[in-house]
Structure formats: C-alpha cells, structure tokens
C-alpha cells in the first residue's frame, strides 16, 4: 500500500490535523516554515513539531511526520554551488536534525529566483470551483510590461508580444497588483524569497552568465556535499521538478525532463539522490511520458505529488485539473509506483500526496481562509479518487 500523505503548513494552517485524519491520510508532509531561508533547523524545533503532529491528541488515529517538504536551498547555493559553504552547512545541519527525529525523506528543488509559478489562483471552472492556472499571455505581460526585463522582447515571437500587449492594456491596477503578488511574492510553501519588482530585477542580474550547464554544475556540487551525509543518515533526497518545466525569465531550469533527471543521477550516482515525482509539474511538458518516467526512475522515487494539469490550446498555458482527469495517465503511473512498492520493504514504501486541490464547496465561502491549492475539500477529493484507483488496481492484482 502506498503511504497516503498530506501537506500541512503547521499550526497556522486552516486545515487541522483532524481534517487530515478524516481525509484518510496517515503521513504528514511539512516543514518548519517559520525558520528563515538559510537558517539551520534545530533538533528541539523539529522534535516539538513532531510531537505536535504525532502526540498532541492521544487516542486519535495515528499520524506520522514522514516527509520534509522542503528545506529551502538558499539562492547563493544556486549561484555559487560548493562555494556557498555557510548555506550548505546550515542545510546539512537541518538534515541532521530531521534525521535525528527519524524522518527519512526530504524534498527540495533547485529553481532559481522563483519556485512554483502561477498567474491565476482563483480561475473559475465550469462547475463553479476555483483552480490555479498558468496563462502564458498574462505571464508574458508580466515579463514584458511589468518587470520590463530588457532581454524579454527577443525571447517572445511577435504574435506572443502582441497578445501580451493586448492582455496588459486590458488590466486594471488591481489586476496588475494581483499578478505581481502571484508571481513575485512567493506562493505559500515556496522556497524562494518574496521580491518587490526592483529586487526581482536585481536578483536576475545576479544570475548573468549562469546557463543550464553552470546551474547543473552547481546542483552537482551541492549534492556532492549533502548526498554522502544523507546516505550515512539513511535519508532520501528527492528533487522536485521545475514548475512549470521550462526556463522562465531567461533563467535556466534543470529538473524538467527525463534527460535532466538522468543527467543528475549520472553526475551523482549516490542512492540518496532521488526524485519527487510530481506528475502535475512534469505533465505540463508534452514530451514527458510520466508512466515511462515512473518505471525508468522507480528505485529513485522517494516521494510523489500525484496531481494533474491540463495543457491549453497554445501548448504553454495550463490549469490544475481533477486528479484523474489531466493530461497524465494517472492509472498507469499508479501501476508503476505500486509495482515498485512490491519490491520494497514496508518501511521504504513510496509516500504520495494529493496536491493543488480545487477551492470548492464550503471552501468557496468568502469568510474561509485557504492557502492556494491547499484547501481541505479539494485535496480530499483528489486523495479519495487516488485511493479508490489504488484499491481497484490492487484488487485486480
Ligand atoms: C507547490 C509545491 C512547491 C514545492 C517545492 C519543493 O505546491 O509543489 O512549493 O513544495 O518546490 O521544494
């Protein structure tokens, strides 16, 4: 049985631990979100959070904190690699604190400047629920007209520039402010700093000369430091794919395809070097065959985000669909993960979580505080669909 996980943002999350239990999840995925990026997590802070999750309500169905998502990788590591000594040492100290508490899976990403990126957080679906969306024209409007990145015009076709101009001309100041917040201010759970537009421009400047080969090298240097320690501690490091899986703002992204992951595993063969199989992120790229990737990288999968996205007509825009109804063949992915699990011992089973649920039913109330994509009800629907599919596959043998 795959372990059913649920991302929890900690004591301030409007979704409670009992909500998680009622959704049927057993494994909590969380981080010490209150610790500033680059600072080491202490053993006592990790222990305290673990106690809160596992022992705060005696008699309740047990929950286990099994995955840390994420220890943020500070910006200087992406720019300087192995030379960012202090940041790497702090990262290792956090990993040691986590391992000391018995947590064995760590999710991280290596996206420069912006973590996951959406233009719309409340896009209405035909059934009245709200989904997150990446609209390529709105994104280009931000890049060309709000950020006004000097190299941007040369990177879009003339038709794309015209569409972006049109979209921008129809935006009110309030629309512009929302777009800036969505893209630059770091969405919940992000591992990058919130930035103002001037800070954003400044950050991009600092990445001059960092192409994909250099960024790959930086990631290898980082892993060369952390993987041996992880191996010793019995920790699996799972690299989350780029979201969306392509370069943004002229910045390289290097965890977007099967070739990217193959290059990573070739560069650092350590068995601690793993993947967080995020079907929603990778699924945005047409050539990513997710069932094939799940099979090819099976032994390296420590953790999975089983959500689905649906590409729109332009091939670049997409929205978050229902978990079983996106572009990805979710049933085939589940079959591959279940086959891998059968080869593993009970303590090494893959943890998966539903992801980016819709805002729906009672969560639509104006008074309801919800984190974008992390509503209780939308994710409960996603998890229930996945669980049903898993049971059916297992039953069919
Ligand atoms: C968004 C998430 C990301 C993810 C990090 C992993 O919903 O998938 O914030 O946690 O990129 O490090």
From TrEMBL:
GO MF annotation, one: mannonate dehydratase activity
Pathway, per record: Carbohydrate metabolism; pentose and glucuronate interconversion
EC number from the UniProt entry: 4.2.1.8
Reaction it catalyzes: D-mannonate = 2-dehydro-3-deoxy-D-gluconate + H2O
Highest taxon, organism lineage: Bacteria
Alphabetic keyword roster: Iron, Lyase, Manganese
Pfam families: UxuA (PF03786)
UniProt cofactor(s): Fe(2+); Mn(2+)
GO biological process: D-glucuronate catabolic process
Family label: Belongs to the mannonate dehydratase family.
Function summary: Catalyzes the dehydration of D-mannonate.
Name recorded for this polypeptide: Mannonate dehydratase
Species annotation: Bradyrhizobium australiense
């Amino acid at each position: 049985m795959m372990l059913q996980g649920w991302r929890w943002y900690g004591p301030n999350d409007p979704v409670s631990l009992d909500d998680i239990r009622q959704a049927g999840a057993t494994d909590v995925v969380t981080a010490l979100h209150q610790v500033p990026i680059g600072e080491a997590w202490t053993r006592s802070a990790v222990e305290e959070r673990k106690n809160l999750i596992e022992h705060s309500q005696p008699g309740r169905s047990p929950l286990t904190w099994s995955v840390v998502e994420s220890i943020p990788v500070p910006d200087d590591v992406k720019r300087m690699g192995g030379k960012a000594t202090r940041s790497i040492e702090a990262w290792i100290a956090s990993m040691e604190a986590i391992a000391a508490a018995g947590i064995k899976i760590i999710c991280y990403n290596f996206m420069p400047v912006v973590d996951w990126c959406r233009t719309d957080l409340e896009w209405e679906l035909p059934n009245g629920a709200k989904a997150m969306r990446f609209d390529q024209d709105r994104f280009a409007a931000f890049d060309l007209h709000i950020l006004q990145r000097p190299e941007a015009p040369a990177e879009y076709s003339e038709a794309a520039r015209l569409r972006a101009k049109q979209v921008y001309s129809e935006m009110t100041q309030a629309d512009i402010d929302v777009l800036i917040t969505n893209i630059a201010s770091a969405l919940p759970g992000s591992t990058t700093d919130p930035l103002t537009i001037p800070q954003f421009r400044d950050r991009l400047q600092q990445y001059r000369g960092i192409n994909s080969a250099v960024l790959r090298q930086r990631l290898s240097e980082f892993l060369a430091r952390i993987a041996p320690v992880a191996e010793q501690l019995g920790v699996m490091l799972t690299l989350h794919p780029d979201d969306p899986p392509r370069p943004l703002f002229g910045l390289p992204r290097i965890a977007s395809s099967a070739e990217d992951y193959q290059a990573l595993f070739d560069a650092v063969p350590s068995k601690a070097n793993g993947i967080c199989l995020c079907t929603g992120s990778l699924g945005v790229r047409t050539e990513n065959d997710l069932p094939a990737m799940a099979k090819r990288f099976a032994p390296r999968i420590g953790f999975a985000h089983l959500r689905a996205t649906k590409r729109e007509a332009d091939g670049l825009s997409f929205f978050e669909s229902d978990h079983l109804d996106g572009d990805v063949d979710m049933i085939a992915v589940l079959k591959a993960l279940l086959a891998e699990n059968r080869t593993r011992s009970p303590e090494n089973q893959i943890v998966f979580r539903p992801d980016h649920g819709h805002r729906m039913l009672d969560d639509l109330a104006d008074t309801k505080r919800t984190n974008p994509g992390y509503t209780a009800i939308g994710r409960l629907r996603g998890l229930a669909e996945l669980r049903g599919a898993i049971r059916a596959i297992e039953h069919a043998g």
